[in-house]
Amino acid sequence: MARAVAMRVRLAFGLAVGGLAGAGLCVPAAAADLRAADDLLANAPEIETTSGWYLRGDIGYVVNDKPKWSDLDFTPVTAATIDDAAVFGIGAGVRLNDWLRVDVTGDYRSRADYGLGPLSGKFSVATALANVYVDFAHWGSVTPYLGGGVGAGYISLADIELLGTDIGDTDGWGVAWALMAGIAISTGPNWQVDVGYRYLNLDGVSLGGGLPDLDQTAHEIRLGARYLID
Fold first, then answer.
1. Which is nearest to 205 in space by CA: 70, 87, 110?
2. Would you state the pLDDT for residue 166?
3. What is the H or E stretch that residue 168 is in?
4. What is the pTM of this model?
5. Contact in structure between 129 and 89 (CB atoms under 8 Å)
6. Average pLDDT of each block of 10 consecutive residues along the chain (230 residues)?
7. Is 186 exposed, middle or buried (0-12, 13-18, 19+ CB in 10 A)?
């Protein structure tokens, strides 16, 4: 009996010592795993984030449609002609979420030669628009989008001549609206290149002086850059 009790005591003592030794081996291993995890986190690349705000600048080529005079009491014998032009724009905006953003833009369209029978002049346009865009799924660094905008449009007719005689200048404001489509290409943490098309419509521009209101549309091929603010 005494011998059996002694054997049980020695067995229990051996198991206890073995358990402590195993625990002692596990502690350094767990500590090593924690240190390795800390090293991975310390060396992980930082994810670049921006505030959502951005600045933009654009240039483009404009195919002008012929201006239309409203409420004319006659049909001009000679069709109107107008040259193409260039457009320059700036703006600022903010991304609201992954698929929606808004901005405000101001654009100037360079002077284009305009003629209507014996009448000729220099036709130029400026617009100020508030715009909203839907950005679709990203394909790598490329994001396609659709957008629309509304605001004010300004038309200037300068150096007007009638049968070769200078008769002055005129200008006026009306409603402007636009539809846009394009792609944005990410070129760095804070930069995107914007390649797009814009259809611009100017309605009811009042030029004063007893002239009828003027409507005009244009098609713009645009190249722009966006700077994403940190």
1. 70
2. 86
3. strand 165-188
4. 0.76
5. no
6. 46 44 46 54 50 96 90 62 96 95 98 90 97 92 97 94 87 96 95 98 87 92 96
7. middle
Helix (H, G, I), strand (E, B) or coil at 187: strand
Beta bridge partners of 200: 178, 218
- The pair of three-digit structure tokens given for residue 124, joined into one six-digit string: 């130029």
How big is the chain, counted in residues? 230
Return the pLDDT at 80: 85
**Token pair belonging to 220:** 């713009």
**Pairing of the two strands 191-205 and 165-188:** antiparallel
Strand pairing partners for 166?
161
Assess contact for 56 and 226: CB atoms under 8 A: yes
**CA pair distance 68, 219, nearest whole angstrom:** 16
Note the Cα 38 to chain centre separation in Å.
39
Residue 170's DSSP bridge partners are 157
Measuring CA to CA, which residue among 91, 98, 155 is closest to residue 129?
91
Contact yes or no for 109/124 (Cβ under 8 A): yes
User: pLDDT at position 9, please?
Assistant: 41
